[in-house]
Amino acid sequence: DGEVRQRAASALGDIGEPALPSLVEALRIHDADLRQGVIAALGQIGKPAVASLIAGLRTGDDSRIRSGAAAALGEIGDPQSVDVLIEALDDDHEEVRTAAREALGSIRKT
Questions:
Q1: For the chain, what percent of residues have pLDDT higher than 70?
Q2: Biggest distance spanned by C-alpha atoms of the chain
Q3: I need a surface site. Which of 30, 34, 53, 94 has the fewest CB within 10 A?
Q4: How far is CA 97 from CA 15, 80, 81, 101, in A?
């Protein structure tokens, strides 16, 4: 059930740093609503999530992980993610490039 998965993602966000590996892995999920919940949970964790998200964006073998990581980095708004987001503008997948572009726009506004 989608609502249960959304609540689970939110609960993982409440857990904080120990939940980072599970949340980053959950970015692979095809369900767009659940992915948004995971991105929000990563945004809720904030700065402690930045290093894991940068790693996911740089080395993720799944474009959904890379695009989700870019979106979450935009939610967090940490300027240290700007360089990796700029690199992601050259990703092979349009969804990653779009997420990186939007994230950079969000960071610039903060």
A1: 99
A2: 38
A3: 30
A4: 30, 18, 15, 6
C-alpha atoms less than 13 angstroms from C-alpha of 27 in its C-beta half-sphere:
30
Between CA 107 and CA 34 the distance in angstroms is 23
- Here the tokens at position 27 are 């970015």
Query: Above 70 in pLDDT, residue 110?
Result: no
pTM summary value? 0.86
Cα torsion for 22, 24, 30, 32, to the nearest 10°? 110
Q: Distance between CA 56 and CA 84 in Å, rounded?
A: 10
b/e 23-54 (16+ beta carbons within 10 angstroms → b): bbebbebeeeebbebbbbbbbbbbeebbebbb
Strand ranges inside the chain, DSSP E: none
Q: Helix, strand, or coil here: 70?
A: helix
Residue positions counted in the chain: 110
